[in-house]
Write a structure and sequence with these properties.
six-stranded parallel sheet, 53% helix, 16% strand, disordered N terminus
């Protein structure tokens, strides 16, 4: 139905599933947490992206964004529709969703046993302060090396350089980035080269852990309805992403699968 092949374009040599010309790692949450913590412990400069149907749809329209998703590092499947197409391609159930906020909290938790130190980039100073406080309350002994809230606007060399300087001064092992899609993916790609450490884009994870945004109940997450919860919570901001974006994703993924089956 679609090609399963060894990674290329600088990604890991683990197997990937190609969904609408975007290379996704065949993985699950536990494996992804382990891999991220290994990157952190070894300070391997790799970008990690949590990509969903909206990201794939956007990558069909913006070649430069598709190049980022297929570039050095790991692109993990943060969306049930993406996972469905991945597993349809393998004929097995090798992949499951790697939810960004879950990857974040599990890595903070498990990272304590290895002494991993974290640096948080994104949102606002107020949210970052609450994030640090909540992280320390929830994960006693966690090492937080620093935080930085970049000025609002497009990613440019100056912002990357300032962030890199702060990260290096903090001596953090890993950088977590919450700047929204697709901005955070461009940002992490530039940042890893500047800091020589892994960087992970995790979207709304900061707000959820800090308590500045409501998270979908566990039962809705388990029933693949988190998108609906977020949509009804912020319909004016998210209607285009979930309605138009999902249609574009399904059409692009179907056409790619059809061509690959020939």
């Amino acid at each position: 139905m679609m090609s399963i092949e060894h990674a290329h374009d600088g990604q890991s040599q683990s197997n990937v599933a190609v969904v609408a010309r975007v290379n996704f790692q065949i993985t699950d949450l536990a494996s992804a947490v382990g891999e991220v913590l290994t990157l952190a412990r070894e300070r391997t400069p790799k970008a990690v992206r949590l990509s969903n149907a909206y990201c794939v749809a956007l990558a069909q329209q913006r070649t430069e964004y598709r190049d980022v998703l297929n570039g050095p590092g790991l692109t993990l499947p943060d969306g049930s529709p993406v996972v469905w197409f991945m597993n349809a391609g393998t004929g097995r159930r090798d992949s499951s969703r790697v939810r960004g906020p879950s990857l974040f909290t599990h890595s903070l938790d498990r990272g304590r046993q290895f002494g991993v130190s974290h640096f948080f980039v994104g949102t606002t100073d107020g949210t970052l302060n609450r994030l640090v406080a909540e992280s320390r309350a929830r994960f006693p002994g966690i090492r937080i090396a620093g935080t930085f809230s970049p000025p609002f606007g497009a990613v440019d060399d100056k912002v990357v350089e300032e962030t890199a300087a702060r990260v290096k001064a903090s001596n953090a092992d890993i950088v977590w980035v919450a700047l929204g899609t697709p901005k955070q993916d461009f940002f992490t790609a530039a940042l890893v080269d500047a800091v020589g450490r892994p960087a992970v884009g995790v979207g709304a994870a900061f707000d959820f852990l800090a308590g500045t945004a409501r998270e979908a109940p566990t039962w809705m997450q388990n029933w693949h309805l988190e998108w609906f919860f977020r949509f009804v919570s912020e319909p004016r901001r998210l209607w285009r992403r979930y309605l138009i974006g999902n249609v574009h994703f399904l059409w692009a993924a179907y056409l790619y699968a059809k061509r690959s089956a020939r």
